[in-house]
Amino acid sequence: MRAPQRVPLAGLPERVEVYEVGPRDGLQNESAVVPVETKAEFVRRLVSAGLRTVETTSFVSPRWVPQLADAADLLDAVAADLDGVRAPVLVPNEKGLARALDKGVREVAVFASATETFAQRNLNRSLADQFDMFEPVVRGAREAGLAVRGYVSMCFGDPWEGEVPVGQVVEVARRLHVLGCAEISLGDTVGTGTPGHVSVLLAELAAAGVPVERTAVHFHDTYGQALSNTLTALRAGVTTVDASAGGLGGCPYAKSATGNLATEDLVWMLDGLGVRTGVDLEALAATSGWMAGQLGRPSPSRTVQALAQG
Ligand code: HMG
Ligand code: MG
């Protein structure tokens, strides 16, 4: 079968915004530098497959993430291909924002940690000090008319600290919301979350004043929980889901992080549920097959593998 049988389920949104992170989260962890023209082709193919939000790269320190040192060149290469497409980029600090503004970026994302250890490892800041770094970025971006997303990492467990209290995650998310982030994306950076945990976190966030309509989910699939966690989030009212074409990805500073929820696995489920995404699954799976060839290893996505069998 090339497509699932369509059988809707009550309590789901009619449409889901697929927030594609393949070119950024998917590639940031690759040790061999992918040529900028290959990255540009990846972005173009994702857009052709119907994705309307593609997180393209990060304006971070090239010493910290050498793979994305070509951020400005990549944006130059795809500048003519992003009509009608949201193309957010990650920026941690004012230097990153200045580089992004210089390239005409319209949307940025800051990325906070819910734990002390990961704040230190990923941002070289304490949990408290990360907000001092983000405050001028969010303010400056908003003054320039940009939309700002705020990620929270390690929402469902941390490889160094273990369990992460829900209240601690809520406080970090609430602070990003108060700073002016229009959307909060809840990162399961190492993929340990399960559906009950997702449900409780979303409820506590809403109770703390972070509305579910402003909340996105970002599940890594390390323990195979990403789709069930996503369905739980959709039933709670979330309508934006982060995913990575072919299931690429991981964070170079998060021990044991594997790829994100594969966009194909997400789209297969949503197609079956009759939830609109605008994504052409065949074109997307072909893109991930092509990208797997460029990277020299098969895609971990079950849907990409099954469709490739014919
Ligand atoms: P630092 O070392 O404290 O920064 O790192 P600094 O301000 O002291 O600067 C050090 C050097 O970096 C200087 O260069 C700066 O100019 C340069 P030097 O003078 O030594 O030659 N620099 C920059 N260059 C270009 N662009 C910039 C920039 N900033 C500084 N923006 C810093 C602090 C935040 C910069 C560093 O920790 C960093 O870049 N971290 C990024 C780590 C990262 O990208 N991680 C992956 C993304 S997060 C993620 O994947 C999780 C997520 O997917 C959600 C989830 O799954 O949970 C979002
Ligand atoms: Mg991630």
Describe this entry's structure for a reader.
- There is one protein chain.
- The chain starts with 16 loop residues before the first strand and ends with a helix.
- The radius of gyration is 18 Å and the shape is globular.
- It is an alpha/beta fold and 310 residues long.
- Strands 1-8-7-6-5-4-3-2 form an eight-stranded parallel β-sheet, sandwiched between helices.
- Helix 2 (36-48) crosses helix 3 and helix 11 (281-295) crosses helix 12 (302-309).
- It has helices at 22-28, 36-48, 71-78, 94-102, 116-123, 130-143, 166-179, 195-207, 226-235, 263-273, 281-295, 302-309; strands spanning 17-20, 57-58, 89-90, 107-113, 147-153, 183-188, 215-219, 240-243.
- The structure holds 3-hydroxy-3-methylglutaryl-coenzyme A and magnesium ion (MG).
- The site of magnesium ion has 7 residues, from loops.
Output the strand order for the largest sheet: 1-8-7-6-5-4-3-2
Strands, count: 8
Shape: globular
Tell me the fraction of residues in β-strands, as a range. Answer: 5-15%
> Ligands bound here?
3-hydroxy-3-methylglutaryl-coenzyme A, magnesium ion
- By helix and strand content, what is the structural category? alpha/beta
Unreliable stretches, pLDDT < 50, 5 or more residues? none
Helix content, binned percent? 40-55%
Distance between the termini: 8 Å
How much is the radius of gyration in Å?
A: 18 Å
Mean pLDDT: 97
What is the H/E order?
A: EHHEHEHEHHEHEHEHEHHH
